[in-house]
Automatic annotation (TrEMBL):
Metabolic or biological pathway, per its Swiss-Prot or TrEMBL entry: Protein modification; protein glycosylation
Family from the record: Belongs to the glycosyl hydrolase 47 family.
Pfam annotation, one family: Glyco_hydro_47
Protein name in UniProt: alpha-1,2-Mannosidase
Alphabetically ordered keywords of this record: Disulfide bond, Glycosidase, Hydrolase, Membrane, Transmembrane, Transmembrane helix
Coiled coil: none
Lineage: Eukaryota, Metazoa, Spiralia, Lophotrochozoa, Mollusca
Source organism of this protein record: Mya arenaria (Soft-shell clam)
Named cofactor requirement(s): Ca(2+)
Extent of Basic and acidic residues compositional bias: 162-177
Length: 656
């Protein structure tokens, strides 16, 4: 029951029902007065709403001019910007610019009028003209002068704005990975439209994840809930957030980046008893965090990367130093996958730690990470290799190869990529990794590269002396790798051409499907060329490797077809993978209306959309002589490798 005392005094309660007290005639009069008060109040509000000046932050050009005319030189002394764009004085109070100007203006006006009358008299005497005509001449002259003054002031203001922008850029450069982390806007407006489209896709993917699966590893876009794959163990680690950070950064989606950053600061703990893939954790979490650090200069990311990498260290405690595949981040116990040939470690996994760990040692000054990965490299360098090839399986206890299966696709892929990229990361000064890369590629050329009857060049798999005429979608990254490795090789032209040929074959695998998206694996059996044969090879899970190769080929050749192919992929993604809840993979690329798998992979945001964005950007964004992308497309700065006797100095921090 309401409290009687809270009601107007003329109401009292009888059995809980309000009743009136006092004389009726008085109540009528009161009602009138109240009505009148309300009416007056309403009119005042109404008037205020329509006639008060608009104080929001948009200022038109003509208003700006008016302010310049009225304001004089003081206007060029920049005041502090308040959130709404108003001028703020040193005490943080908003200045009413109009009022301040009004005071002085009257006096000035009178003086001006007197001066003006005097000038007209003098002029009419000189020109010997009637006063009226002189007035016109004088007006014309004044107008011209005024215009000139105005133009000068606008120019001056532009210079001021430009200076401020430069200063801001300089600050940004000093605290981040340097030039080329932002911008890259293409000059051609038609290309810009495409780039904007890719950014819009990123926004849709991110917003959907944020709305339905925030904090989960991945998003289920159709059932609109969180998802976690086995590679992330049983923990909720926000894989999508960490994988997406650097893409948000280069796309200048600052608000989203900040929200992601805040989540990392407060919610990303990386603890609990769970078994994680050492490789996946490294390339996505350590790589993603280090990249966010390198781009933004925000030390939070470095500390978090260090925290995660430390949890992976037990995996390296094997007789050879080759890491196990899995680690329990609470107990530190480690093991290999049950299915991997006789307890073996996997080539691509043990070989894809170097870029992240070397850089981490450089920025923390803690050499332990670099030590681990150099030991792997040196072990792989000295070991006997069958036909010069690196099989996919190797036992970390005995140092002996498992099954002699060799692949540039699944299980092998990024081992080769990292040999090349170690060399690039070292500023192309490390001859050991370059030689290992060159030797590996030449063995692959000899034993694995084939040309189909239809003239398509591809990299087959090699299983105990026999070729399996198949290429994985995962293997399609190698077109870009061959092109990236051309410079510094004995035959640059040959490798650039090899890159183009692989890009073409992988494009064919897309073009020969109903959806214009490529299958997980395609074969060259009999009459089949670049098409999947088995049902379980027909899916597409938003993978990036083909676009990755288009990206490198575009950078190195500038052939329009790579941008055209990338745009074909954008349209196919929009048609078949976009849903109102985010992006999904599909189960069969050969069906016009394919079934959807209901998973938005974190690498879609880390890699697929990043490569697309870069393809439609200017080369000045992430220039390849300054940045090297890890196998999850997380850029790390080149030259930043660990030096044994160096210590981390403040100076280092500034020149990331
Ligand atoms: C990190 O790399 C920079 C650039 O090459 C180098 O000057 C510095 O000494 C390195 N720091 C460490 C601790 O290795
Ligand atoms: C590093 O220090 C050790 C001993 O402290 C020295 O023998 C070695 O030459 C130094 N290496 C470099 C590259 O300066």
């Amino acid at each position: 029951m309401p409290v009687p005392g809270m009601l107007p005094s003329y109401q009292r309660y009888v059995n809980g029902v309000p009743v009136s007290v006092g004389r009726k005639s008085l109540r009528m009069r009161e009602k009138y007065i109240i009505l009148l008060v309300f009416l007056t109040f309403g009119m005042v509000c109404f008037g205020a709403f329509f006639f008060l000046p608009d104080l929001r932050d948009r200022v038109t050009v003509s208003e700006m001019r008016r302010h310049i005319q009225m304001g004089g030189a003081e206007i060029f002394v920049p005041g502090k910007e308040s959130p709404g764009g108003l001028q703020v004085d040193n005490h943080g109070d908003i200045i009413d610019v109009h009022k301040v100007q009004d005071k002085g203006r009257l006096g000035v006006k009178i003086a001006e009028d007197v001066a003006r009358q005097k000038a007209i008299d003098e002029l009419s005497n000189k020109l010997k003209l009637p006063k009226d005509d002189t007035l016109k001449v004088k007006d014309a002259i004044d107008q011209d002068k005024e215009k000139l003054k105005e133009q000068e002031k606008v120019k001056e203001m532009e210079i001021q704005v430009e200076r401020q922008r430069e200063a801001k850029d300089k600050v940004h450069r000093e605290h981040s990975g340097g030039e080329g982390t932002r911008g890259g806007e293409p000059a051609d407006p038609a290309v810009k439209v495409k780039r904007d489209k890719v950014k819009e896709m990123m926004k849709h993917a991110w917003d959907s994840y944020k709305k339905y699966a925030w904090g989960s590893n991945e998003l289920r876009p159709i059932s609109k809930q969180g998802h976690s794959a086995s590679i992330f163990g049983t923990s909720t680690l926000g894989a999508t957030i960490i994988d997406a950070l650097d893409t948000l950064y280069i796309m200048e989606m600052d608000e989203e980046f900040k929200i992601g950053r805040d989540w990392v600061a407060t919610d990303f703990k990386f603890e609990g008893s769970t078994e994680l893939s050492v490789f996946e954790t490294n390339i996505r979490f350590v790589g993603g965090l280090l990249s966010a650090y390198a781009l933004s200069g925000d030390k939070l990311f470095k500390d978090k990367a260090n925290h995660v990498a430390e949890k992976l260290l037990p995996a390296f405690n094997t007789p050879t130093g080759l890491p196990h595949s899995m680690v329990n981040i609470k107990t530190g116990s480690t093991r290999n996958w049950g299915w991997a040939s006789g307890g073996s470690s996997i080539l691509s996994e043990l070989g894809s730690m170097h870029l992240e760990f070397d850089y981490l040692s450089n920025v923390t000054g803690n050499g332990i990470f670099a030590e681990k990965v150099y030991r792997i490299r040196d072990f792989m360098n000295q070991i006997e290799k069958p036909n010069g090839l690196y099989p996919n399986y190797i036992n970390p206890k005995t140092g002996k190869w498992g099954q002699h299966h060799v692949a540039i696709g699944a299980l092998g892929d990024s081992f080769y990529e990292y040999l090349l990229k170690m060399w690039i990361q070292s500023g192309k000064t490390d001859p050991v990794s370059r030689k290992m890369y060159d030797d590996a590629v030449s063995a692959i050329e000899t034993h694995m590269i084939k040309v189909s009857p239809g003239g398509l060049k591809y990299v087959s798999e090699y299983k105990s002396g026999r070729n399996e005429l198949k290429m994985d979608h995962l293997g399609c990254f190698c077109g870009g790798m061959f092109a990236l490795g051309a410079e510094g090789s004995a035959e640059p032209e040959k490798y650039l051409q090899l890159g183009q040929d692989i890009a073409n074959t992988c494009h064919e695998s897309y073009d020969r499907s109903a959806t214009k998206l490529g299958p997980e694996a395609f074969r060259f059996d009999g009459n089949t060329e670049a098409k999947a044969v088995r049902q379980n090879e027909k899916y597409y899970i938003l993978r990036p490797e083909v676009l990755e190769t288009y990206f490198y080929m575009w950078r190195f050749t500038k052939e329009q077809k790579y941008r055209d192919w990338a745009w074909e992929a954008v349209q196919a993604l929009e048609t078949h993978c976009r849903t109102d809840g985010g992006y999904t993979g599909i189960r069969d690329v050969y069906q016009v209306n394919p079934q959807k798998d209901d998973v938005q992979q974190s690498f879609f945001l880390a890699e697929t959309l990043k490569y697309l964005y870069l393809i439609f950007s200017d080369d000045s964004l992430l220039p390849l002589d300054k940045w090297v992308l890890n196998t999850e497309a997380h850029p790390l700065p080149v030259h930043r490798v660990f030096k044994k006797n160096a210590t981390v100095t403040e100076n280092d921090e500034k020149h990331l």
